[in-house]
Amino acid sequence: MEYESKKSWWLQALQTGLIGGVVAVLVSLIGMVASFHERDIIAGQITMGQTVLLLIVIVFAYFSSRGTETTNVSNRLISGALTGLVTASFIVGLILLGKAVNLREVLVNASPALYKILTFEMENLTTAYIYLLLGGTVIGLLSAMIHLIPSVWRNAVINGLLLVLLIALLQDLIRLILVPFPSITKALAWMFGTKGQEGLSVVGAITVFLIVTLVNLFSTAQGDNMRKRIQSLPKGSQQGLRWITWIIIAALLLIWPRVAGTYLSEVTNTVGLFILMGLGLNIVVGYAGLLDLGYVAFFALGAYTMAVLTTTGGEITANFQWTFWEALPVAIFMAVLAGVVLGIPVLRIRGDYLAIITLGFGEIIRIMFLSDFLKPHLGGSFGIVLIASPTFGNLSLNTPQTLYYVILAGCMLALFVAYRLRDSRIGRAWKAIREDEDVAQAMGINLTSTKLLAFATGAAFGGLSGAIFAAKLSTVYPHSFVLLVSINVLALIIVGGMGSLPGVIVGALLLVGLPELLREFSEFRLLIYGALLIAMMLNKPEGFIPEAVHLRELHEVEEEDNVTQTAVA
Amino acid sequence: MSNILTAENVTKRFGGLTAVGRLSIEIPEKSIYSVIGPNGAGKTTFFNCITGFYHPEDGDIIFDGRSILGLSSDQISQRGISRTYQNIRLFSNLTTIENVLVGQHALLKSTLLGPIFGLAGTKREEAEAVIEAKRLLAFVSLLRKGDLLAKNLPYGDQRRLEIARALASKPKLLLLDEPTAGMNPNETEDMTKFIRRLRDELGITILLIEHDMRVVMGISEKITVLDYGEKIAEGTPKDIQGNERVIEAYLGRGSAAQITA
After folding, report:
1. Which of B143, B168, B193 is the last residue of a domain?
2. Residues B191 and B75 in one domain
3. Is residue B86 part of a domain?
4. Does the CB of B197 have a partner CB in chain A at under 8 Å?
């Protein structure tokens, strides 16, 4: 630390620029820029690939000028510009190198198309270099200037830019949603690129940016006012307001599949299943601190139990042909049983060792389903087909839009249970074990039963999710239950915030929903995952929505001073 | 007065090292009893044997008329022994009041279904537990800080919170491992008064490990001195102060002669 602070600000700016440059070259050479180039952010003006490069310059310059110790304004601006310049010079360097030597023999992505993107399709290379270097410096300077504007404005501007990016990325989906409403489609046509083009139009982008920024400004200015006004209301009306908010949220959740259409409902369902798993794993890892890397096993057991009990395919020995609702409790029970069976041998094992053992457990379950030995019963690598869909009265809930309600109900149930347990005696015992296992035990907590309860409750949610998953696809294969699912669920908890319930939802939307919507970038999904996790751990290790502290409003209590006459300091 | 805890020939070895050797101690009910000795004398190891963190190789520990040998630390806690730690070990990411509530764990009954369905019994139990926790926090003057995370409390507060958490399980015997470590003379003075109040007002027997001789001599009714895991002296503060072996253990051979000379 001491060494850091002694380092002069411009050296630091230079160093940040170097890192930024390396990152920019890296994303270019792995093909990310070229692949993202297919997507327009602003039709005909700027593509996603160029946006990635821009963002790198902006982010690194922003952090470089933030990291500058000095309060000297000009130093901050210069360090931002310097970082931008260094980063840009790396891109120039890459082009120069690429033109001089044939990089393509080793790096397949160093294609002429890449250079075209990097030079912004300028013919004259010398002007391109000058533009790039100048551009990098100016953008670096501008990002450094973000620090100078008041935080209210800064947040509004950043939110505005982010939303332009998000809407531009999701514009085809938005248009898809709007198809049933031709009048709105027509009215909003100016916002998007013309036929055949993707992304927002220039006017659309500016409008979105302005609206978001202004709404943001207004809401921060008025937010405090509103909060005060709500707090000054009588208790009854406050309660009423809360009810109204809940009713609006409930109504939105209920009509969502009608608005969203088939594709978005499908994505929502996937997110919902991951929320369910996240809530379960959150009890094991977030509450009780037991690092479980084999969580997918419970998901798989729920799915296979549902499959075996309800299949009408006749390809496996079992021929129960139960309905979904009959099989559901059994599927959950099987997962819980597996949770306990796994729990007993690993009770004494801690931390890293626990992670390794649970990892093995997850793999064992998958390989068991894959095995030839159990093929007559579980279908081996062919899996099990023709799994029953849930029914509601005479209605078969087999479309994404109808299945959505089953998943919604499951998520609500899991949320409710997790919420109720959080501040209960058991929830506190879980958190105590997470904090210090030995002390928790010395406080009278029975580690065996408390840990098993955590495993069992977590497994139940996983089993529920798996059972619905099987019914949703109507087929199960062993390869749906790979280690990556466990990792995904763990990552979404970490990104959302360990132990935090809203964090699970945000994490699932971010790590499952967004990649699902941006399918063409799926090649780089794991890379972005990794980068996001590292950035998260460095800057916000507690997650996007950190675990809430349960306040009992004790600070307002007048201390009973007569009880503590001989007060201890 | 009967003995609440009797240790008979307790022996704990780590490999070839005998951390506690054939230690016998009798602790009378409602007394303040101190265990002292130089660093590494085996005091904390002895505490760990009593609370079930370690299992002694030999000997027996009788608490409240029954042997607690071989019990796990949660069972021992439920019998009525509670402790604090030399290096404070709070649940740092829980709030002050939650730490005390965890201390009440064994006294409460609810499991999964009670809180999920919001059963009346569970709600009542929880409300009573919070009232009890507030009472304990008031007792250690921490009620106002009940909503702070334990890790954000100042050092002295953390020490007292640890005691409040230990008290929450309604122990008959409280083991305090260096409660005044790292405190200034004023804080030490207050802590000493506080420990005496615990015994006088709550009727809890106190077993104390302490380095500060003023504290030890001021409040203990009986003292046992350990050195290299063995008992080298036992008696009232007066007996111990004049004991040659004790002075030798603390200051080295020959010192006793110099001091008495």
Report:
1. B168
2. yes
3. no
4. yes
A555 touches chain B (CB under 8 A): yes
Q: Does B106 touch chain A (CB under 8 A)?
A: yes
Chain A residues with CB under 8 Å of B139 CB are 563-564
The strand pairing partners of B60, in sequence order, are: B8
More confident residue, B176 or B242: B176
Q: What is the pLDDT of residue A562?
A: 41
Mean pLDDT (chain A) is 87
Place of tokens 């953390």: B158
| Model pLDDT for residues A35-92, shown as the tens digit of each residue | 888 878 887 778 888 888 899 999 888 888 876 655 677 888 888 899 999 999 999 9
> Which of B168, B196, B225 is the last residue in one of the domains?
B168
Domain for residue B209, yes or no? yes
Taking alpha carbons only, the member of A279, A464, A477 closest to residue A379 is A477
Query: Which of B82, B93, B115 lies nearest to residue A421, judging by beta carbons?
Result: B115
Q: Identity (one letter) of the amino acid at B64?
A: D
Give the closest of A428, A549, A560 to B149, CB-based: A549
Domains of chain A, by residue range, sit at 7-148, 264-482
Q: Is residue B19 part of a domain?
A: yes
Q: Under an 8 A CB cutoff, do B98 and A566 touch? A: no
Closest CA–CA distance from residue B179 to any residue of chain A (Å): 13
CATH of the domain at B187: 3.40.50.300
pTM of the model: 0.89
Contact B138 A453 (CB under 8 A): no
**B10: containing domain:** 1-80+171-261
Collect all residues of chain B within an 8 Å Cβ-Cβ radius of residue A419.
none
pLDDT above 70: residue B102: yes
- Same domain? For B101 and B43 the reply is no
Interface probe, candidates B92, B143, B191, chain A, greatest A C-beta count within 10 A? B143
Closest chain A residue to B85, measured at CA: A439
pLDDT at position A568 is 41
The answer, for B190 touching chain A at a CB cutoff of 8 Å, is yes
Nearest to A436 among B91, B108, B126 (CB): B91
ipTM value for the complex: 0.93
With respect to residue B85, please indicate whether it lies within any of the assigned structural domains: no
| A336 has a chain B CB within 8 A of its CB | no
Say what the pLDDT of residue A89 is.
93
What is the number of CB-based contacts under 8 A between chain A and chain B? 158
Same domain, B164 and B179: no
pLDDT in tens, A177-204: 887 788 887 877 787 776 666 778 888 8
Which of B105, B140, B143 lies closest to A429 in CB terms?
B105
Whether chain B has a CB inside 8 Å of the CB on A348: the answer is no
Residues of B in contact with A445 (CB under 8 A): 74, 102, 105-106
* pLDDT tens digits for range A102-136: 888 888 888 888 888 888 878 888 888 999 999 99
Tally the residues of chain B.
261
Count how many domains chain B has.
2
Same domain, B74 and B96: no
Question: Could you tell me if B175 and B158 lie in one domain?
Answer: no
Contact A280, A295 (CB under 8 A): yes
Give the CA count within 13 Å in the CB-facing half-sphere of B179. 30
Token duo for residue B35: 């265990």
Using an 8 Å Cβ cutoff, are A288 and A433 in contact? yes
Residue A269 has a pLDDT of 96
Which residues from chain A sit within 8 angstroms of residue B154, using beta carbons? none
| Least CB–CB distance from B144: residue in A426, A547, A559 | A559
Four-CA torsion A284, B84, B123, A453, nearest 10 degrees:
20
Quick: pLDDT tens for B27-82.
999 999 999 998 889 999 999 999 999 999 999 999 999 999 999 999 999 999 99
CA angle, residues A369, A374, A375, in degrees to nearest 5: 85
| Average pLDDT estimate for B166-195 | 93
Radius of gyration of chain A (CA): 27
Are residues B136 and B236 both part of a single domain?
A: no
For A31-60, give the secondary structure using H, E and C. CHHHHHCCCEEECCCEEHHHHHHHHHHHHH
Tokens of B104: 């009440």
A62, containing H or E segment = helix A48-67
A6: confidence class by pLDDT, cuts 50, 70, 90: low
